[in-house]
Write a structure and sequence with these properties.
The protein is α/β, with parallel strands linked by helices. The chain has 15 helices and 13 strands. It folds into two domains: 215 residues, Aspartate Aminotransferase, domain 2 (3-Layer(aba) Sandwich), CATH 3.40.640; 102 residues, Aspartate Aminotransferase, domain 1, CATH 3.90.1150.10. 45% of the residues lie in helices and 13% in strands. The termini are far apart.
């Protein structure tokens, strides 16, 4: 069926009401347009604008959600889209394989635009971990070849390479990142000291889940490419938190989990592979098309998939685009900056996250001398209904509390968090 007939079938309502979905989501987008008009298009609208945006998230009453770093909430249009297309599977399963894959192709193009890549460079996966494994499994590395990574990587960035080391005898090396580092030069110099002529891959977190560091991957990529080293960036938190321009970052591979900050449903991920290196990475999963696609689609030959997840990803991008991605990133930086400023007034508190906006964004981590992070996290949830989490390890000096400040968080929420921290410190006799 050609595209024109396909769209006519959707609009005619084959297994679901295409118009009904568009109308219910349009009501949300009309409201966002009204908020934008009231804000006169300002890049930094006041809190009234963001309180209006918050109403389009499906929160429990009085829940203060500050853990987007694990799984974030979905906006209403994303939920509507997800449920609508799952209903297709219930009512007319044939539409799942006859029509929905054509819509997924549109999402792939939209995804490329969202991260400023070319459509042939992106694949829709299940999560960041899958993309990292695709690179680790797909590259031809031999005994003695080196993979260099920081000492703050996520298990998803560590264990695919440790597995490859066991199977093929490659070497995995770490370099140190400060908590927090003093600046870009310190990070780059630490990487340069770790590499040797045998280094083939830099595995680096673009968004460090432990400390909230935004790693200067642009500068690291420049240094790595001078030495013929490939760069794989774990940006699990990047999609939806940062206004990403993937080509400016200069990485060869980039993976993200849009169910954290973009508002997509769990089970859908982003995998970017630069055109120039696609012929160096074998597909991990082989199905029809793996040997014929001349694009990143070769890494997406999964056979049948849950297309509703991918289509909800498309709606999540639409929601963010309606607000404005530069505006979103600016708001996240403003919230995080205010949080760090307020936390710095707590006696004995150490920030694990940089103050510099170039090296930080929506994740803020901290510890307090004499305070158990797990007990503080429990107290904040039980007494204030604030959701944060513990992070890091005692042995590496990174054990603490991590806070996510997304656009639906208010300054009042941050004040309530800091008051809760101060109250807990007083209760246990720290002051």
């Amino acid at each position: 069926m050609d595209r024109r007939n396909f769209l006519q079938k959707l609009m005619g309502g084959s297994a679901f009401s295409f118009y009904a979905l568009k109308e219910i989501n349009a009501a949300v987008y009309d409201d966002i347009a009204g908020l934008d008009q009231a804000a006169q298009g300002a890049i930094a609208p006041d809190g009234t604008y963001w309180e209006g945006i918050r109403k389009h998230f499906l929160f429990e009453d009085n829940l203060i959600m500050m853990n987007n770093g694990t799984v974030g909430p979905m906006p209403k249009p994303v939920y509507n889209t997800l449920m609508n297309y799952f209903e297709v599977q219930v009512k007319a399963p044939c539409d799942v394989y006859l029509y929905l894959p054509q819509l997924v192709n549109d999402v792939r193009v939209k995804l490329a635009q969202f991260i400023r890549a070319d459509p042939d460079e992106v694949a829709i996966t299940r999560n960041t971990t899958e993309g990292i494994n695709f690179v680790a499994n797909g590259l031809d590395l031999k005994e003695g070849d080196e993979v260099v990574m920081s000492d703050l990587e996520h298990p998803s960035g560590i264990h695919p390479w440790r597995l490859k080391a066991k199977r093929y005898g490659i070497t995995v090396k770490e370099f140190h990142l400060g908590v927090p580092p003093r600046g870009v030069d310190e990070i780059v110099e630490s990487f340069k000291k770790a590499v040797t002529p045998r280094t083939k891959v830099l595995m680096i977190s673009h968004t460090v889940y432990i400390t909230g560091l935004i790693t200067p991957v642009k500068e690291l990529s420049e240094e790595a490419h001078k030495r013929g080293i490939l760069v794989l960036a774990d940006s699990a938190h990047g999609a939806g938190m940062l206004d990403v321009d993937i080509h400016k970052l200069g990485v060869d591979f980039w993976c993200s989990s849009p169910y954290k900050w973009m508002g997509a449903p769990p089970g859908v991920g982003v995998f970017y592979v630069k055109k120039e290196v696609q012929d160096r990475v074998w597909p991990t999963i082989a199905f029809s098309g793996w040997d014929t696609y001349k694009s990143a689609r070769r890494y997406e030959t999964f056979s049948q998939r849950a297309d509703a997840l991918a289509l909800a990803l498309g709606e999540a991008m639409e929601f963010q685009n309606r607000i404005g991605r530069a505006r979103i990133e600016r708001r996240i930086h403003a919230l995080a900056g205010y949080l760090k400023e307020q936390l710095s007034q707590v006696p004995g508190l150490k920030l694990h996250t940089n103050a510099d906006n170039y090296l930080s964004a929506g994740l803020t981590a901290f510890s307090i001398q004499g305070v158990q992070p797990a007990a503080l996290v429990d107290y904040l949830r039980e007494k204030h209904n604030i959701v944060v989490r513990t992070i890091g390890s005692e042995e590496r000096g990174t054990y603490g509390v991590r806070v996510s400040t997304h656009i639906f968080v208010t300054m009042r929420d941050i004040d309530r968090l800091v008051e809760g921290v101060q109250d807990y410190v007083r209760r246990i006799g720290r002051t």
